[in-house]
Amino acid sequence: MLAEAVKAFAPTSRPKNQEFINTVESASKIVQPDTPVNDPFSIVSQEMSTLAKNIGSLLGSGHPTLNKVALYYFQSEGKHVRPLIVLLLSKALSEIPVDQRDRGSRDESDSVSAKPMLGEGVDDPLSPLSILNEVNPNIVLNPLSRPMSALPTESNGILPKQRRLAEIVEMIHTASLLHDDVIDNSASRRNQPSGNIAFGNKMAILAGDFLLGRASVAIARLRNAEVIELLSTTIANLVEGEFMQLKNTAVDTTTQANRASFEYYIHKTYLKTASLMSKSCRAAAVLSGARDPVVEAAYVYGRNLGLCFQIVDDMLDYTVTDAELGKPAGADLKLGLATAPVLYAWEQFPELGNMIRRKFESPGDVELAREYVRQANGVEKTRELAVQYANDALKQLEILPPSDALEALKKITMAVLNRKK
Fold it and tell me: Would you put residue 349 in left (φ > 0), alpha (ψ -120 to 50) or beta?
């Protein structure tokens, strides 16, 4: 079972704005695992709690309203799957003997034996602060200009740059949620009003942009060209995937269109969900210094897990209630989206092709499409597809040496497959 790891993030160095302080402190509790031995969260619980504080410090702004909106989704009980996976994978990678982690990408300043070098840490700027902030750097206006507490060179086998990677991934993901809710005009998320409802579309979009800006600075300070390229590409992928979703699907003629639409759906799913998981897993392996076969396996693991995650999400849209899902259920058809259950039903009911083309906008389309999905066992077939991706993800883990972290990754994979929300 996935732990509800972090409700919000408290900064290590607090700005004076009392509203910001109250917002962060009231949301900084960590939910402890129920089963300390078997719960995957327990293996990296210390890192998750430190991660929470670090994200809080990265998000602070001199503008109290911007702080409030940017921190809004971090106050609710999210799954936090992505940083948890990055940390567990990083821990599992640390079990590979050091002499087999000689790919050349591991930053020696991160290692236990190396002495920290001034100006080379994950919190050290690459440009003068006066240029970055266009203010006197001695005036503390944002967290990028104030000193942070020193990170240990290595903790629990996880490198500082891998820990920062986990933080960056969660920031990018949260920014995408703020933007997605505006695009979809969502009313709720995680059992509370969505950001666009609570603050309006403009503020939600600006907060998402702010998160991406903060994440981009943190990405650059990793000082690893390959990792910078990987993470920057994920941001572009999220936009590409959203554009593909606006078009919805590739449709032409019945049989060929169905096949092409399924390929379109999988690619869109990769861009919107699996890209961030796959490239962050690859980045964790690159930072570990692991050799190419391990780096590639980490990428494929994240890709398959990400596809499984979204396919399960698309299936749950047909099987659970609003309260169980934490957001409006049955929303995909209402938004005109043809996901796996409908595409499977289309194989049996060709008339669905016209409904997909018009994005289920005619009266009765949504109800009829759901009935076709039921008759064609679309949900069951979607479940089988998710199982296939989960199994493919598990196969990639065989390259890693045995460890508690490896077993935790297997549990996470099955938890993603069997989740109910």
Answer: beta
In three-state secondary structure terms, 272 is helix
Q: pLDDT by residue (tens digit) across 215-234?
A: 999 999 999 999 999 999 99
Residue pLDDT, tens place only, 368-380: 999 999 999 999 9
Q: Please enumerate in sequence order all residues whose Cβ is within 8 A of that of 98, keeping only pairs 6 or more positions apart, or say none.
A: none
Evaluated on CA atoms 299, 382, 181, 55, the torsion sign reads negative
Write the CA distances from 294 to 60, 100, 283, 290, 298, integer angstroms: 36, 10, 11, 6, 6
Nearest one of 96, 99, 86, 105 to 289, comparing CA atoms = 105
Distance (Å, whole) CA 92 – CA 354: 48
pTM score, whole prediction: 0.81
- Residue 79's closest CA among 310, 346, 365? 310
Q: How far apart are the first and last CA of the chain?
A: 12
Beta bridge partners, 155, equal 158
